[in-house]
Amino acid sequence: MKNYYRLITLISVLCSNLLFANAIADEMERLPYYDSAEFTPKWLKSDSLELNDMHQISDFKFIDQRGKYVTADTFRDKIYVASFFFTTCPGICPKMRSQLSKVQEAYADKDYFKIISHSIQPTNDTVEILQTYAKENGINANQWHLVTGNMDEIYNLARNDYFANEDLGEYVSNKDFLHTENLVLIDHNKHIRGIYNGLNNASVGNLIGDIKLLEQELKSTRKIN
Length: 225
Hints:
Blueprint lengths: L1 H27 L32 E3 L5 E3 L7 E7 L6 H15 L6 E7 L7 H10 L7 E4 L3 H10 L21 E5 L5 E6 L3 H20 L5
Helix pairs in contact: 2-5
Family: Belongs to the SCO1/2 family.
Keywords: Signal
Protein name: SCO family protein
């Protein structure tokens, strides 16, 4: 009889461990959500009611290197990466551009994926300058949008929507240039799903892999094949 109870106990422990392992595996197959500048991850399922109140990127309207308007509708049902730069930046921008080029290459044939890089010197980075910059650096205008526009709108979007402030870089006033090396991953529902260091090879490698996880979510909605 004692052996019987030991067997039952062992089976119960094994089942509990298996359930725990499955739960951990399920977590690893999903990306968290972020809804504040503290970037505290929230692990939610796609059908969670909490998503109804989850932070989303606001509507916007800028102009890209082709002279075409880029709005929230451009990214409807798309996965995208957002960044901030300026064309004459001698420091972190060339390295970030090189890393983003890897992301562009990894998903070059995927029409559900885009990149948007906002100029933080929009008065200097005109459409013509952005177009030249794109050609010189192998940027595919159909997938990677370099955008310019009203400075206040760009900065407000950066700080209030992408949380590009003291947690993504050094906090600066509206009169200064916003400078951050971070890349922000946005899902097809305009939710923030990841933050990555655009200067770090391993971090950008994680970004490339996480885009694949969001691709699976997008496929589950039957919006892509």
